[in-house]
Specification:
The complex is a heterodimer of chains A (100) and B (470).
Chain A (H helix, E strand, L loop, with lengths): L1 E7 L5 H15 L4 E7 L5 H4 L4 E2 L26 H18 L2
Parallel strand pairs in A: 1-2, 1-3
Chain B lengths: L1 H16 L2 H15 L4 H40 L5 E3 L2 H9 L2 H19 L5 E3 L5 H13 L4 H30 L7 E2 L8 H14 L10 H8 L5 H15 L4 H43 L6 E3 L9 H20 L5 E2 L10 H8 L3 H32 L12 E3 L6 H13 L4 H39 L1
Parallel strand pairs in B: 1-5, 1-6, 2-4, 3-4
The chains are: A alpha/beta (100), B mainly alpha (470).
Chain lengths: 100, 470
């Protein structure tokens, strides 16, 4: 099980779109992932340490000290499937690197 | 004609009599299917909206039920008359989405956006369908204040067009703050950024009076880390419950009850918020697909909800510092009836501050402190309307005192609520209000034009800097 954290303003809109899209696409690609959506305000090193990959919308200050893999997922929000494919590819590459 | 109306009444009245939740379930399902969503997906969205409406009503009931008595006692013991319960954004959004007018305003704005793209008046395709409620609430409040649907629609289109133009004006600043290349299509038409013109005026005043404060800017991420869980929803509920309980001279047991009830409600409001955002999701995708098909692969920027910028620590640092400032202001501000609770973390305020000041956090806080009264007054102004609408869509508990009001302290678009109020009252033919409305609209538009000029200057500097770099 790969644990992914995503975040947005209120933790209910953009981040939920990312969560749903990642869980669906990664399971289609054969990976067992679980994604959680939170308020970006609540993201800190302690919270990040409980996840394998961080999947923010764009650059996030709260994650600047972490060494964990970070995949920017903003393009998922564009609602244009072709533009989200590079994000899914990057996420798949990050998952493969984890060697779980 | 009369036959047609009576036929429509026969068909629709039984649906309307079912109440808002079942009605909106049917309407949302049908509209989603109209834009090409499969029946099962469309129905899923419809049911989620119905349970969100029902759920939000239940939580409003718990919150107002617990606080009504304490707030009355608070008024008695302190002499401060803040009796409107601040429920935050989620209930207002849910209530607004409980009105079929929201789908109507959505349709109008989708057409406006496509026309503006076709006429090359904008480069932004807005896919943030959910946030149409910000405009819809302006339109609904305009109607509540006395306008007919036509006048309200014109006002919504007027503000909507400026919102879309603003998304183009802000685009280079977003790239700057995100360290993103020009190819990044992220922008936003979010209503909170319509405060930019006023913030820019204040920013210019700041340049003259408070420029010496800039050197004290601090590390925003570090401050947020220190605040830790104290800034989270449940913690805010708990200590505001304690605050109100203490000032209302309640006993320890009641204070604990208030504190934990507020904590529960603030957590649940945003949870239910996520249900109804999910409810609108199939419709959002359907509309985007529909629009994309008609744009023939043209490259454009994409209007998202505001939080793609939420990774900047400054906006949260400013929101955290502004929370206690707003509480103090609320206690002494003449004409304010709201005690900050659900909206105390000012997410509808700080993104615009971030953009105009370009993340100078002391500036954000000082200007924020000066503009917050506008939000409190606007929240107070719309309280009777919000409460009436909540009752109309069945999201307001029965058995609560008829004088209990709900609203939101930091609802984006406070100035637009005043516009709606003036225009609505002017539409009734009151000469005084017609004058107010004309003055308000002229000032609002004039400020926007001035702001647009300033932003174009800023954008030219960005472009020149890029050109020299290359």
């Amino acid at each position: 099980m790969i644990k992914i954290l995503t975040a947005c303003g209120a933790g209910v809109n953009s981040s939920h779109q990312i969560k749903d899209a990642l869980e669906k696409e990664m399971s289609n690609r054969g990976y067992d992932v679980q994604c959680e959506a939170v308020m970006v305000k609540d993201v800190n090193d302690e919270m990040l340490s409980k996840y394998d990959i961080f999947a923010p919308i764009a650059q996030t200050d709260a994650a600047k000290n972490t060494n964990m893999p970070i995949v920017d997922c903003g393009p998922i929000l564009y609602r244009i499937p072709a533009m989200a494919v590079p994000v899914y590819d990057a996420m798949e590459a990050a998952i493969k690197k984890l060697k779980k | 004609m009369n036959e047609l109306i009576s036929f429509a009444n026969i068909v629709f009245t039984p649906f309307i009599n079912l109440g808002a939740a079942p009605l909106m379930m049917v309407v949302l399902t049908l509209v989603a299917m109209l834009v090409g969503v499969k029946f099962s997906k469309a129905l899923e969205g419809g049911i989620k909206l119905a349970i969100a409406l029902t759920g939000i009503g239940a939580i409003i009931g718990i919150l107002t039920g617990a606080f009504a008595v304490a707030l009355q006692a608070f008024v008695k013991s302190t002499g401060i008359s803040l009796t409107i319960t601040d429920v935050g954004w989620a209930p207002l959004a849910t209530i607004t989405w409980g009105s079929p007018y929201t789908l109507y305003f959505l349709l109008v704005m989708v057409i406006v956006n496509l026309v503006m793209l076709a006429l090359k008046k904008t480069d932004t395709l807005d896919v943030d369908i959910f946030d149409i409620w910000h405009l819809s609430i302006v339109g609904l409040f305009c109607i509540f204040s006395g306008a007919n649907l036509f006048v309200a629609t014109v006002l919504v289109i007027f503000i909507g067009v400026l919102k879309i133009i603003n998304s183009d004006l802000m685009k280079p600043t977003f790239n700057d703050l995100l360290n993103a290349p020009d190819t990044n299509p992220m922008t936003t038409t979010h209503m909170n950024y319509m405060m930019n013109p006023i913030i820019m005026v204040m920013n210019n005043i700041y340049d003259v009076l408070f420029f010496w404060l800039d050197k004290y800017d601090f590390d925003a991420a570090e401050l947020n880390k220190k605040i830790g869980f104290w800034g989270s929803k449940f913690a805010i509920g708990v200590y505001l419950g304690v605050f109100i309980g203490l000032l209302a001279h309640q006993d320890v047991k009641s204070i604990c009850g208030l504190a934990f009830t507020a904590g529960v409600c603030l957590q649940l409001f945003s949870l239910i918020g996520s249900w109804f955002i999910a409810a609108v999701e199939p419709l959002s995708q359907g509309i985007t697909d529909f629009a994309n098909k008609r744009l023939n692969g043209r490259v454009f920027n994409i209007g998202l909800d505001w939080p793609f910028i939420a990774g900047r620590a400054e906006m949260w640092a400013a929101a955290n510092v502004l929370a206690p400032i707003m509480l103090l202001e609320a206690l002494v501000l003449p004409g304010n009836g709201l005690l900050p609770l659900g909206g105390i973390i000012a997410m509808g305020v700080t993104p615009a501050l971030l953009i105009v000041t370009r993340a100078r956090v002391i500036r954000m806080i000082v200007i924020g402190a000066f503009e917050l009264p506008v939000f409190l007054w606007s929240g107070t102004l719309i309280a009777p309307f919000v409460t009436a609408t909540a009752k109309a869509v069945g999201a307001f508990p029965t058995g609560i005192s008829a004088t209990t009001l709900i609203s939101h302290t930091t609802m984006e678009g406070p100035v637009e609520k005043f516009l709606a109020f003036f225009v609505g009252n002017a539409a009734k033919g009151d000469i005084q209000y017609i004058m107010y409305a004309v003055i308000a609209l002229v000032v609002y538009f004039g400020l926007f034009v001035w702001y647009a000029k300033k932003m174009k200057k800023r954008n030219a500097i960005y472009a020149a800097a890029k050109a020299t770099k290359n």
